[in-house]
What does this fold into?
Amino acid sequence: MVNVLTLDGKGVVLAVVMGALILFFGQGFGPFFLLVIILFLAISAVVTRIGRRRKEGLGIYEKARGWQNVLSNGLGPLIVAAVYAANNWYLHLLLINFVALVYVASVCAVAADKFASEIGVLNGEPIMLLTMKRVKKGTSGAVTVTGLAASLIGSFIISLSVLLVGGSVNVAGIVAVSGFIGGVADSVLGYFEEQDIGNKYTSNFVCSVVGAAVSSVLLSVL
It folds into this structure.
């Protein structure tokens, strides 16, 4: 089976298609947008393999992820890239740099979720955010202190990419916090997954949307 950056064959195909669309919609920022997504895939591959044996023992290690993972993680950023293109083609608003930062925040959010789930399960007693009750490791919506710290680190790593397009360290911090909040939103939705309302794919998509939305607000007022 094809395995590129933890993706199976269908995942690779969809990733290439979505990457091409992001590159197209991003226009001048297209290469930057694509670079951010590739960075996410690269660090995701690294954190997935951390504690592999322990994860296998818990039955939660995913050797390769499919097209559903690609779609749920990449659809939010793709929509933001499309908004960026619409801004240039139809709206003619001076929001180019702003939308680019929101795009990064959407990727920060899925990175935050990835770090939280892959590293958080390795240490600490998980609790369900909405009930504050202890649950077993691997339960959707469960968080640990280690996972939350890892979540912020993952978001921050992606947020540093804004420095490449003239963003300041303060702006990178705002984008990182926005992504972290998106990751927390994913954990909240995990509670409903356990009640058979939604699934990890819908939660991942909402996670990226929340990261983008929060960054839009924070970047506007701060």
In short: The radius of gyration is 17 Å. The chain has a mean pLDDT of 89. The chain is about 70% helix and 0% strand. The helical segments are 9-26, 30-49, 52-58, 67-91, 96-120, 145-159, 169-193, 200-221.
